[in-house]
Amino acid sequence: MKMKPLIIGDLTAKLPIIQGGMGIGVSLSRLASAVANEGGIGVISGVQIGFRDPNFKQNPIKANLKAIGEEIAKARKLSPNGIIGMNFMSIDPHYNEYVTEAVKHGIDLIISGAGLPLALPKLVKNSKTKIMPIVSSVRACRLVLTSWLKKDNRIPDGIVVEGPKAGGHLGFKMEDLQNGTMQTLDEALTDVVNFVKDFEQKHSVSIPVIAAGGINSHEDIERVSNLGASGVQIGTAFVATEECDASDDFKQTYVNAKPEDARIILSPTGFPARAVNTDFVKKAYDTDGIAVKHCYGCMTGICNPKTTRYCLSDALFTSALGAGGLVFCGERVGEITEITTVHNLIQKLCNEPCKA
Prior knowledge:
The protein is an alpha/beta fold. The protein folds into two domains: 6-246 and 335-350, TIM Barrel, CATH 3.20.20.70; 251-320, no CATH class. 37% of the residues lie in helices and 16% in strands. Helix 1 packs parallel to helix 2 and helix 2 packs parallel to helix 3. It is globular. This is Probable nitronate monooxygenase.
């Protein structure tokens, strides 16, 4: 199958590949720009992006706002002509501020999940920034499209359908993930594609649908393309690249992981998530947990520092810096056996020489 360009409004990616945003500190300017230079869409994670700032602990919001501008500028310098996006969790209490800051710095695209991003259209008004919600079902897709159209007269520039094999936070019920009773990616994708086709005809618009979660090969891309996907979003495979912004120890955790090491957990956010079953995860979930020493206020009203099993921010900072911690992953992490380059990975995904 020959790869077709991915058209999102007035943006055209030469390859229909979006690198998934991964936090904390896993996909920043280096990885995003490398993917963009290959003709895909590179995505910077906006989750606690300022964690390396020396003043982060005292003022995380200020550090994050500063880092958003800095990482966008770095990515632009490394990939002047590439498409750069950012990913934000819609349940973040400072979501509006962070998205607004990214828009101010001219980000091309905002991709948003971990809850329904119903406020997103207002935050990009009068800008060129494109917006794409992440949904896991046609019900969620219908809700977002109806809300955006009714409240803001805005239609999404694309829709990411994320299946249950994805890494990090998941838009499914814990019991369904544990029992295998949720929809597969292919089932949800088919439902969303059919719904979007009707929506497109009714409103005379074009909305690309992107498949995500468990995409790891050219054959996967071909399969979801045949189901109507215009492109794919891939996260886990890009972690095991030289350009990934995470530490070498973090990447090696992926290389060393066996298929059975991908574990479903209940995150302090209240969402199910998938992570490598490291010593940290075993201590956090198989014992009484890890006491929170400092609260960053990243999930105010959602996470109670007195009762949570651990501090999510601390756990992700630690892992990104290579000192243990929480390592999110996709279900197919066990298939990763080596560290490669973004270029070589994309060639493999294309199954033929690809030119940016």
